[in-house]
Amino acid sequence: MYVIVKRLMDVVLATVALIILSPFLILIAALIKMDSSGPVLFLQNRLGKDGRPFTMYKFRTMQHNAPVTRNPDGSYFVGANDPRLTRIGRLLREYTLDEIPQLLNVLKGDMSLVGPRPDQVADLELYDDLLRRKLEVKPGMANLALIHGRNILSWLQRAEWDAYYVDHHSLKLDLEILLKAAVLVLLRKGVYYPDDYPDRIRN
After folding, report:
1. pLDDT score recorded for residue 193
2. pLDDT of res. 66
3. What is the pLDDT of residues 155-202, one digit of tens each?
4. pLDDT for residue 126 is more than 90
5. Rounded CA separation 136/165 (Å)
6. What is the pLDDT of residue 187?
7. Which residue in 5, 89, 130, 143 is a FRET match for 63, CA 20 to 30 A apart?
8. Which residues contact 9 (CB under 8 A, 6 or more apart)?
9. Are 96 and 123 contacting, i.e. CB atoms less than 8 angstroms apart?
10. Which helix (H) or strand (E) holds 54?
11. H helices within 109-154, ranges in order?
């Protein structure tokens, strides 16, 4: 029953959100094209439920074909002063507007509104048993790690929150995550990695 209701909630909320936001999304797309060369959307293969890859959609926030930078723990680094970010991309990141196209992934069934954030396909080689736990459910746009620190947390801490979600997921928890995530996104909490992140994950 939970799976059916959760899917229904995903479809209804994602559809309503896309309809309401459609004029705003067109404006964002135009600003991205005017700000820098390259596509409006950033497409990337990510790991879905049971490790099945899917194409995830985001608004492009970096220069086209920007190099990838990782933190020492394997997570991907994006700092507030990252030169790879475009001007409009920096604004989109700060308010998490770059994630809105993932509502299309939710409608397609690749993702849910709530669930562990999907990693890149290549990251599967770095997975241990704890990290593999997140593949037991659909990835999501909002998750427990987001409301408990987001990018301030190490990759291991995020994996622990994902495992907790897998063991305790429920409609009540999903709604709690969505409500808290909405507030934290507006407050721009934990969007960028702190300057002392490398030292923090070693301690």
Report:
1. 54
2. 72
3. 889 999 999 999 999 999 999 999 999 888 777 655 555 555 544 444
4. no
5. 10
6. 73
7. 143
8. 113, 171, 174
9. no
10. strand 53-59
11. 129-132, 144-147
Average pLDDT, the chain: 88
For residues 65 and 42, what is the distance between their CA atoms, to the nearest angstrom? 10
* Predicted TM-score of the model (pTM): 0.87
Sign of the Cα pseudo-torsion (41, 38, 75, 157, in order): negative
pLDDT for the residue 190: 53
User: Tokens 């690749």 sit at which residue?
Assistant: 110
* 192, 78 contact by CB (below 8 A): yes
Q: Which two tokens stand for residue 38?
A: 């390259």
- Amino acid identity of residue 134, one-letter, is K
Q: What are the contacts of 91-97 at 24+ separation with CB within 8 A?
A: 92/28, 92/59, 92/61, 93/61, 93/191, 93/192, 94/188, 94/191, 95/185, 95/186, 95/188, 96/185, 96/191, 97/28, 97/59
**Domain range list for the chain:** 2-197
- Give the model's pLDDT for residue 202: 43
Tokens standing for residue 161: 């929150």
